[in-house]
């Protein structure tokens, strides 16, 4: 089939109702603005449509006042601390957001119990090992954290433990309070000139390193993902894991708890250490095999340990590790300064409010971060992407099964300059939501597509011209399916729809091999007909008789008096009877009604 030309008619109205010009149409979603008020159509639909009322935020652990105030200005805030897992699961079905620290386990059951209402989990701190990220993602729930506000507090606590351990401060204090005066028992070791190995050279690790340098220590670090020049800039050498642990007098742990770091200090690694090494842990208890540490302390390999974090928190009362006289323990106090808690509370409240407003938080943990200027620029294309997905899937004939989707982006931009993750997510949303009960957003789009066996490939067509406009057009093709509207099948055999943004409004510009031009608002009727005079009038008057407002009409044809595809934008859904009558117009060969 040859590619057709298109002829566009702007239809003020063919119905009996008042005319509707383009400029008087509904505005596009205002999802990209930063107002703190709930809106009807947030960009990523993180909030359910029912959220015209205030959302509800459950704060399950103590949060600084400034953060609570921010939340209360925007939402109903339920501060319920020390909930049992069962109580949390019961409450969560009434909440749109949940804020926790490290003391609450946000398990798969929590997401399941929320029955889709929970849209954001805010972790008021760094570590997200207490949140089941896979379950959050599967349920389309965004997880955000507050990664920066407690860095200094944690680093200061690490240094406090280092010095207190070296000088037996806690043990000596307890001894004095017990009425003893044991000066020779509590002779310590000096820090100056000693080698400190920092394991995990991220935010906290690098701040610990900086402070330890100030104490005259020789600092080395191991971090497979850290940049050597950043370490060098503060006089720290990055070394291998074995070199770090073998040469250190002190080891300070600052990596996240992951499958790779779990029990990274164990019998085998303790055996490689210098006899008399001292360990500080303000990261996560699980990075140390705690039974192995007790053995290493008993055998003298490890002279002392200072621990703020434990595998089980609070640890069992009879824990051999806690009771060990060579261990200094604090109850996960790393982030607990007044300053850090106020900072964390504000950081997380802003992130949660932003997410409930449909914005993407810069601290999203389970979704790509898309900077706000990129969001603003892509706004009309995001809308276009979703609508093309929605149209394409409605063109598939029942029983065909969508498996292979190809998306083509035509752009004058260099690949690095166009982030398509958001567009792909919205195409996925458009493809999947009309045919399932699944709620799709940027968080779970890839997961949902994979789970449903839909393979989405992306291709860029690089165009000459000005890269000012992010995209010329987006094309969505569904392969290996039959169509309810045969004309939507392109020459190469796929269902094909293509769209562009014109004056900020998404337009459908191609169906199969036919060029059309209809603004993607309201719904669309596609008709294939034998091109002849009077067709627009005939179809228009059927719709007009029923007071269905036509916003846009466009005819794409192969050649005069041959086949043509007419695309009609309608504001209301025509009745079955009107659609039947359109189908009965003699020149109409096939037609389809598509909801946007
Ligand atoms: N005790 C507390 O109250 C407290 C407070 C803040 C942070 N933390 C914990 O401290 C840790 C670090 O926090 P952060 O803010 O510095 O995080 P971060 O993400 O900035 O730094 C973590 C670093 O660990 C590195 N890393 C990852 N895998 C590693 C491996 N196998 N070996 C060595 N390094 C590895 C990463 O590359 C990264 O540079 C986290 O576990 C966090 O939960 C605890
Ligand atoms: O990961 C963190 O941010 C720290 O471990 C702090 O945890 P907390 O918020 O429970 O004090």
UniProtKB/TrEMBL annotation:
InterPro entries: ACT-like_dom_sf, ACT_dom, Ado_hCys_hydrolase_NAD-bd, ASB_dom_sf, D-isomer_2_OHA_DH_cat_dom, D-isomer_DH_CS, D-isomer_DH_CS1, D-isomer_DH_NAD-bd
UniProt KW DNA-binding keyword: no
Biological process terms in GO annotation: L-serine biosynthetic process
GO cellular component: chloroplast
Record keywords, A-Z: Amino-acid biosynthesis, Chloroplast, NAD, Oxidoreductase, Plastid, Serine biosynthesis, Transit peptide
GO MF annotations, alphabetized: NAD binding; phosphoglycerate dehydrogenase activity
Residue ranges of domain ACT in the record: 524-596
Similarity annotation: Belongs to the D-isomer specific 2-hydroxyacid dehydrogenase family.
Subcellular location: Plastid, Chloroplast
Annotated metabolic or biological route of this protein: Amino-acid biosynthesis; L-serine biosynthesis; L-serine from 3-phospho-D-glycerate: step 1/3
SUPFAM superfamilies reported in the protein's UniProt record: ACT-like, Formate/glycerate dehydrogenase catalytic domain-like, NAD(P)-binding Rossmann-fold domains, Serine metabolism enzymes domain
Keyword Aminoacyl-tRNA synthetase included in the entry's annotation: no
Main location: plastid
Name of this protein: D-3-phosphoglycerate dehydrogenase
Entries under Pfam families matching the protein: 2-Hacid_dh, 2-Hacid_dh_C, ACT, PGDH_inter
Catalytic activity: (2R)-3-phosphoglycerate + NAD(+) = 3-phosphooxypyruvate + NADH + H(+)
EC number: 1.1.1.95
């Amino acid at each position: 089939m040859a590619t057709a030309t298109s002829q566009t008619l702007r239809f003020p109205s063919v119905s009996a109702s008042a005319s509707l010009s383009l400029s008087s149409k509904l505005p596009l979603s205002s999802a990209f603005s930063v107002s703190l008020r709930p809106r009807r159509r947030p960009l990523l639909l993180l909030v359910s449509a029912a959220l015209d009322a205030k959302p509800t935020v459950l704060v399950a652990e103590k949060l600084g006042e400034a953060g609570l105030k921010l939340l209360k200005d925007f939402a109903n805030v339920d501060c319920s601390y020390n909930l049992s897992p069962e109580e949390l699961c019961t409450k969560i079905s009434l909440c749109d957001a949940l804020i926790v620290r490290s003391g609450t386990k946000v398990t798969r059951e929590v997401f399941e119990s929320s029955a889709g209402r929970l849209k954001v989990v805010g972790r008021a701190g760094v570590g997200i090992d207490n949140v089941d990220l896979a379950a959050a993602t599967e349920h389309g729930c965004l997880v955000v954290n507050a990664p920066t506000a407690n860095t200094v507090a944690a680093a200061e606590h690490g240094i406090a433990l280092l010095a207190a351990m070296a000088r037996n401060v806690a043990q000596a204090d307890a001894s004095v309070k017990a009425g003893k005066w044991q000066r020779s028992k509590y002779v310590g070791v000096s820090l100056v000139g000693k080698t400190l190995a920092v394991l995990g050279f991220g935010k906290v690790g690098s701040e610990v390193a900086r402070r330890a340098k100030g104490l005259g220590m020789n600092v080395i670090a191991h971090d497979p993902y850290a940049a050597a020049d950043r370490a060098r800039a503060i006089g720290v050498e990055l070394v291998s894991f074995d070199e770090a642990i073998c040469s250190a007098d002190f080891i300070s742990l600052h990596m996240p708890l992951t499958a790779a770091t779990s029990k990274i200090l164990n019998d085998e690694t303790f055996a490689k250490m210098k006899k008399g090494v001292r360990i500080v842990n303000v990261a996560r208890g699980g990075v140390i095999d705690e039974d192995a540490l007790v053995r290493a302390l008993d055998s003298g390999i490890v002279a002392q340990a200072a621990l703020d974090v434990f595998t089980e928190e609070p640890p069992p009362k009879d824990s051999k590790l806690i009771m060990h006289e060579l261990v200094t323990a604090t109850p996960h106090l790393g982030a607990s300064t007044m300053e850090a808690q106020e900072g964390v509370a504000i950081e997380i409240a802003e992130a949660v409010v932003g997410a409930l407003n449909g914005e993407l938080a810069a601290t999203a943990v389970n979704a790509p971060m898309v900077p706000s200027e990129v969001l603003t620029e892509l706004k009309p294309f995001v809308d276009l992407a979703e609508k093309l997905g929605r149209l394409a899937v409605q063109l598939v004939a029942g029983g065909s099964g969508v498996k292979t989707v190809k998306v083509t982006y035509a752009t004058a931009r260099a690949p690095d300059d166009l982030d398509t993750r958001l567009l792909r997510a919205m195409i996925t949303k458009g493809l999947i939501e009309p045919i399932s009960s699944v709620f799709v957003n940027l968080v779970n789009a890839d997961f949902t597509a994979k789970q449903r066996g839909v393979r989405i490939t992306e291709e860029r067509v690089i165009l000459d011209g000005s890269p000012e406009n992010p995209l010329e057009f987006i094309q969505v093709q569904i392969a290996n399916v039959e169509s309810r509207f045969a004309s939507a099948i392109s020459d190469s055999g796929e269902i094909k729809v293509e769209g562009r943004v014109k004056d900020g409004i998404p337009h459908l510009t191609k169906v199969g091999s036919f060029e059309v031009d209809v603004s993607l608002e309201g719904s669309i009727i596609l008709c294939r007909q034998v091109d002849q005079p009077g067709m627009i009038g005939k179809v228009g008057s059927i719709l007009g008789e029923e007071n269905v407002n036509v916003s846009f009409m466009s005819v794409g044809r192969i050649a005069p008096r041959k086949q043509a595809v007419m695309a009609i934008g309608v504001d209301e859904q025509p009745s079955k009877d009107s659609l039947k009558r359109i189908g009965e117009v003699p020149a109409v060969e096939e037609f389809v009604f598509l909801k946007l």
